[in-house]
């Protein structure tokens, strides 16, 4: 007696390919489901509305990119646009951040949602099944070109100039804000990284309060984010942020017995209190992670790790040189002060080569 619960004789099991032709014939390829036309396929009015919606989304992307440039070039925090009052720099900064962030968001969101809406409502949605093959002969290349041309025709980009033109405008403007952001990653002329505001006798102060630090305030295992005291006198229009980015320092205290000190640097620390640049020597990210038990400083961007007990030598990650050390001492009032500026340029290692080339050109020019 046959058991037709699965359409096969009783006792027949195993892979379908191992069965006879008659047994395989029981399982027919159902094929693709019937195509269901969308509203835009049968209603020209709906298609026109969808076209306008796509164009509107691309136009929103264009507006977003323009807003970014308005914030980037038109709004300044130094008082050139707004009257100089106590609240003006803060208001300008908030407006600039709003325009920069909102502009990028609208620029990318508009073009992304627009393309998706275009594909879902106006581009052909018929399901196709075809074998993939290598394009080798000239005839096959010509066939591939014909397929690309067919795709362009079916997408409607040739007969829908409104969508085409707004897409071109959005696609051209959308990447430009990122070019501006890349430019702001650092100065084109890297020579200013050679010097910072640190100098002999400049006090170390807490960031952001500006409170001076005494050696007695720094306990074993503690960490301070510090700045040069003379930075507090600068305004935004005088380069406050640029100078701060170069001069930021991490201050820590270790047991002097576990620290290796290079000859000539014995007086660069104060009873185990060490100061090192906070700018990673890989690509310049701010280092802010300190593992007290291992005495390691970690960069959160690319996981470069520096050994504080061994003059911040690199023990892991892509950084290729130690963090520059700031020589420090104590003044007559017990406050920590710098002995001098950094003895080497701060920042990424690649900047050192640029600085060396610039200095050689200056010497040759003189």
TrEMBL record:
TM regions (residue ranges): 54-75, 95-119
Membrane topology: Multi-pass membrane protein
InterPro entries the UniProt entry points to: QcrA_N, Rieske_2Fe-2S, Rieske_2Fe-2S_sf, Rieske_Fe-S_prot
Primary location: membrane
Keywords, comma-separated and alphabetical: 2Fe-2S, Cell membrane, Disulfide bond, Electron transport, Iron, Iron-sulfur, Membrane, Metal-binding, Oxidoreductase, Respiratory chain, Transmembrane, Transmembrane helix, Transport
Family matches, as PROSITE patterns: RIESKE
Keyword check for Transcription regulation: no
Keyword Oxidoreductase attributed: yes
Top-rank taxon: Bacteria
GO MF annotations in UniProt: 2 iron, 2 sulfur cluster binding; metal ion binding; monooxygenase activity; oxidoreductase activity, acting on paired donors, with incorporation or reduction of molecular oxygen
Region annotated Disordered, chain positions: 26-45
Subcellular location field: Cell membrane
Pfam name, any one: QcrA_N
Domain Rieske: 246-337
GO cellular component, one term: plasma membrane
Similarity section: Belongs to the Rieske iron-sulfur protein family.
Function: Iron-sulfur subunit of the cytochrome bc1 complex, an essential component of the respiratory electron transport chain required for ATP synthesis. The bc1 complex catalyzes the oxidation of menaquinol and the reduction of cytochrome c in the respiratory chain. The bc1 complex operates through a Q-cycle mechanism that couples electron transfer to generation of the proton gradient that drives ATP synthesis.
Protein name from the UniProt record: Cytochrome bc1 complex Rieske iron-sulfur subunit
Organism of provenance: Kocuria soli
């Amino acid at each position: 007696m046959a058991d037709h619960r699965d359409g096969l004789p009783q006792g027949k099991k195993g892979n379908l390919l191992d069965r006879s032709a008659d047994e395989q014939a029981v399982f027919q390829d159902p094929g693709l489901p019937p195509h269901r036309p969308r509203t835009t396929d049968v209603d020209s009015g709906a298609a026109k509305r969808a076209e306008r919606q796509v164009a509107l989304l691309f136009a929103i992307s264009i507006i977003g990119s323009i807003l970014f440039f308005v914030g980037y070039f038109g709004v300044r925090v130094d008082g050139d646009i707004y009257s100089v009052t106590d609240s003006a720099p803060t208001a300008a900064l908030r407006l600039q951040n709003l325009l920069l962030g909102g502009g990028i968001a609208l620029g990318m969101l508009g073009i992304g949602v627009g393309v998706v809406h275009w594909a879902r409502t106006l581009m052909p949605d018929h399901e196709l099944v075809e074998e993939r093959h290598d394009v080798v002969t000239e005839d096959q290349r010509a066939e591939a070109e014909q397929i690309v041309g067919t795709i362009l025709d079916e997408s409607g980009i040739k007969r829908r100039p409104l969508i085409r033109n707004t897409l071109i405008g959005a696609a051209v403007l959308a990447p430009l804000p990122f070019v501006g952001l890349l430019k702001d990653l650092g100065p084109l002329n890297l020579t200013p990284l050679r010097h910072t505001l640190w100098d002999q006798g400049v006090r170390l102060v807490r960031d952001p309060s500006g409170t001076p630090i005494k050696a007695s305030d720094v306990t074993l295992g503690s960490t301070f984010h510090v700045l040069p005291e003379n930075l507090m006198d600068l305004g935004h229009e005088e380069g406050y942020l640029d100078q701060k980015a170069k001069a930021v320092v991490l201050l820590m205290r270790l047991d002097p017995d576990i620290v290796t000190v290079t000859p000539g640097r014995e007086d660069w620390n104060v009873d185990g209190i060490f100061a090192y640049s906070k700018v990673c020597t890989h690509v310049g990210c701010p280092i802010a992670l300190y593992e007290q038990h291992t005495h390691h400083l970690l960069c959160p961007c690319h996981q470069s790790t520096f050994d504080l007990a061994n003059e911040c030598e690199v023990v892991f990650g892509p950084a290729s040189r130690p963090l520059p050390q700031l020589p420090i001492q104590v003044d007559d009032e017990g406050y920590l002060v710098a002995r001098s500026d950094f003895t080497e340029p701060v920042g990424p290692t690649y900047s050192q080569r640029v600085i060396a080339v610039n200095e050689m050109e200056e010497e040759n020019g003189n």
